[in-house]
């Protein structure tokens, strides 16, 4: 999944490679599921529950979706309906979008006015630029939240939406590969999740 690759996985690869310098990494981001037919890839991380057959599917933990914006803009927002007066950045391919968030907070809202993107990493970048408020996963935006360029504006004042968005997928026979087992152990530790994996 492109946004997971750009926002979460790639920044952590130096740490993985420092611990496992003997493992060669080839990373490809796209929206099509890996078919694993030619053994070109060991594992896929997909957004949304995959429909493939003959593969092992492990959920990569729950994500929190919340409105995010620059601190200057956040100071103007005190309650959920304040959002309706601002440009809302929408991600076309998200499983949780603005109508879902407003419904979770007891509000009915017309379609957002603002900008639309087809990838979360673009919506996050746009929010960092100060052009609006993005509804995004705190997992995907954790670097921006950590460095203060984005803030969860209604933390403790509104209902966030929680869901499982990303899944680790691989052929069952690939479990014989030590590199896959090492990667699985690493990613589940990084995500602080217990996948009850078939290892």
Provide structural commentary:
It is a single chain. Helix content is 28%, strand content 21%. It is built from 6 helices and 9 strands; from the N terminus they run αβββαβαβαβαβββα. The protein has helices spanning 2-19, 71-74, 98-104, 120-128, 142-146, 178-190; strands at residues 44-47, 55-59, 62-69, 88-91, 114-117, 133-137, 151-152, 161-164, 166-171. The strands form 2 sheets. Strands 3, 4, 5, 6, 7 and 8 form a 6-stranded mixed sheet that branches. Strands 1-9-2 form a 3-stranded antiparallel sheet, with no helix packed on it. The chain is elongated, with a radius of gyration of 18 Å.
Approximately how much helix is present in the residues?
Answer: 25-40%
Work out the strand percent: 15-25%
**Helical segment tally?**
6
What are the low-pLDDT stretches, counting only 5+ consecutive residues below 50?
Answer: none
Q: How is the main sheet built?
A: 6 strands, mixed
The secondary-structure class comes to: alpha+beta
The chain-level mean pLDDT equals 89
Indicate the overall shape.
elongated
Termini distance? 24 Å
What string gives the helices and strands in order?
Answer: HEEEHEHEHEHEEEH
As a whole number of angstroms, the C-alpha radius of gyration is 18 Å
Number of strands: 9
